[in-house]
Amino acid sequence: MFFFPDQKTPVLFQGITTIMGSYQTEQALKNGTNLVAGVSHEMTGKLGTIPVYPTVEKAVRAKHPQVSVVFSTSQNALNDVLEAVKSKIPLIICTTEHVPMHDALKMKLAAQRAKVTLLGPSSAGILNVEKAIMGTIPVRLFKGGNVAIIGRSASLMFEAASQLISLGLGISKCVSLGADHLIGTSFVPVMEALYADKSTKAVLIVGQVHGTLEQELADFYKKKHPKKLFVYIPGKKLARSDKTPLLGMQSVLFSDVIENKKKQLLKSKALWIESPDKIGKTIFDSLKGKKK
Amino acid sequence: MELHEYYVKKIFKDAGLPVLPGGVAYTSQEAMAVASKMKQGPFWVKPQILLGYSPEKKDDILLKKILAETPKDVFNMAEKILGTALRGYPADVSSTIQRVYVEQAVQQKSLCRFVFRVDFDSQTYTLTIVSDKSSRTFYLDDLKLTSNIKKEIIKTLKISNYHIKRALESILDKAYHLFTYYGAVAVELNPIVQNDKTLVVVDGRLVFDPASLFRFPEITKYQEVKLGHEREALAKKNSFRYTKMGGNIACLVNGIGLGWATIDLIHQKGGAVACLLDVGTEPTVNAITKAVKLALSEPNVDGILVNIFGGLTSCKVIAEGLMAASPEISTGIPIVVRMVGLDSEEGAYALSHSFSPFLVMNKMSDSVSEIVKQVKGSR
């Protein structure tokens, strides 16, 4: 089950001695994350004050982390995630980019079977604003508030957050699912957790043309919509279809795919954002209108 | 980057798939020799060329496989094809056909075609099998090709002959092995024909996942740049992504989501994007410089919009990269730079004090309006 780790949740960093891993260790310690251990293929001992273990199993035995953030290289990502799955860490966040597709599917299957949650690969992680950071989301861009953001491509989520903040709104949670085609967690489980989150009033989804995660979300939101839901999906002007389609596949236009997703989401009472420069404004106007 | 058919056939053959006898030839003499070694005609002569963007006018004769009855005919066909350039490509692109693949021809009709692929919608492996009468997709939920699925396929295709059954099962197993061994996006065998009591794989595709190729350096060695994809290849070499579009504004971004959103906005405001240059989350100075130079080298680019959201990306690095490309920016092409986030003040300061005419702006919508306006006057 997906959950929001906070400043008390014990966290493990795998690949803690990679460039990204050690940089994010600094950020995590500065921003309240309860980082209890690291795992590295290169060294054991201590990184600053954080004990570093050679295997996840040893780290788990010593420190009982509830979350593991994987900063491994794309070569090591599969094995490192499988190690975390084997140790039954309930929430695994894989930040690695360019993970081979078959590796991503193997991670997903292993996590499903072990009943643990895999976020990513290619996830920028989870930011529980003003509480804890788990991943590569830059904390300094954020300010506390009551809008949650769940998205695929991280760059666009940051853009959206900055638009909201410049209008005086703030962010409660920010969750990056990853921009890759194959990812462990879809919008729905995160949305479910947000329904129970008192600090969140509205949710912004930054979607993607590929896949069917938005349709799945529309079905979920149709049944129960206690929080406002805003959706923006980039790519409708790309006027592109996929390359030479393989046997049994149809070539579809991106604009048609997005139009389809829009229709379903609107039917489920979600609010659609047409233009990327109006993300902040649309949400601001809607939330302000509600207060009146 | 892709593999020529003759190399894909070699991979198929090495994997134990029943392909037709054939060989690659660089000269007409070689082509005839390949044909002479086979028992009898007819033969196919197939030009080996990797088409990326195809030109407006298609040289159909140079792209199709050609049937030849005798080795002498093979020689004549090869003579015609080799050294000929495809029409419609710019002069700096070498579109000369340098190789042909000579293969035993078969004329039986197709029994079936199938493809193993990574399916993004169902998020698992799928196997789609198509025949004249039916088309079915199987979901390999456990990432395994089970004997049940194989039995279902035989049933669907209504195959009763024992030898053909066994042959098809073997082809499925071997294709599946290729698919998982290479971590391929797709393996397509199309078509499979029946030749007496055996099956033959006539054609096929092997679509690699670029992310898994670090495991197969030998494949990378044989991959060649597709015709018309020279810019993509240059970009890849310098660690950024290039996507050709059709308009006149080059768009440099750090992240695909931001890139697509920027394209949406440019088109919404009446502009048209020439190409998208995505330098990713942690670009180097070199990648940015090379990306700008690539944009400037495109004849149809009238302006550049740089849209950077500095999450992990330092705007100082962006500014440095842009300034290093300055010597090339003498053409009066407007460059609008929108940078926010990490080190944006330092970056903006550096750019506004450089000699090149970078117009630095803060808001995405303003910067898009500005580049669209500036470019409108230029043609």
Any overview of this molecule?
The complex is a heterodimer of chains A (292) and B (379). Chain A is of the alpha/beta class. Helices cover 36% and strands 22% of the residues of chain A. In chain A, strand 1, helix 1 and strand 2 form a beta-alpha-beta unit. Chain A has a seven-stranded mixed beta sheet, sandwiched between helices. Chain A has a seven-stranded mixed beta sheet with strand order 9-8-11-10-12-13-14, sandwiched between helices. Chain B has 13 helices and 16 strands. In chain B, the strands form three sheets. In chain B, strands 5, 6, 7, 8, 9 and 10 form a six-stranded antiparallel beta sheet that branches. In chain B, a hairpin with a 2-residue loop joins strand 8 and strand 9. The two termini of chain B are 34 Å apart.
Helices, strands, pairings?
The complex is a heterodimer of chains A (292) and B (379).
Chain A: E1 10-14, H1 19-30, E2 34-39, E3 45-47, E4 50-53, H2 56-63, E5 67-70, H3 77-86, E6 91-94, H4 101-114, E7 117-119, E8 125-128, E9 132-135, E10 144-151, H5 154-166, E11 171-176, H6 187-195, E12 202-206, H7 213-223, E13 228-232, H8 254-267, E14 271-272, H9 279-291
Parallel strand pairs in A: 1-2, 1-5, 2-4, 5-6, 6-7, 10-11, 10-12, 12-13, 13-14
Antiparallel strand pairs in A: 3-4, 8-9, 8-11
Chain B: H1 5-14, E1 22-25, H2 28-37, E2 43-47, H3 60-63, E3 66-68, H4 71-81, E4 100-104, E5 110-119, E6 124-130, E7 135-140, H5 147-157, H6 162-181, E8 186-195, E9 198-201, E10 204-207, H7 217-222, H8 230-237, E11 241-244, E12 249-253, H9 256-268, E13 273-278, H10 285-296, E14 303-310, H11 315-324, E15 335-341, H12 344-352, E16 358-361, H13 364-376
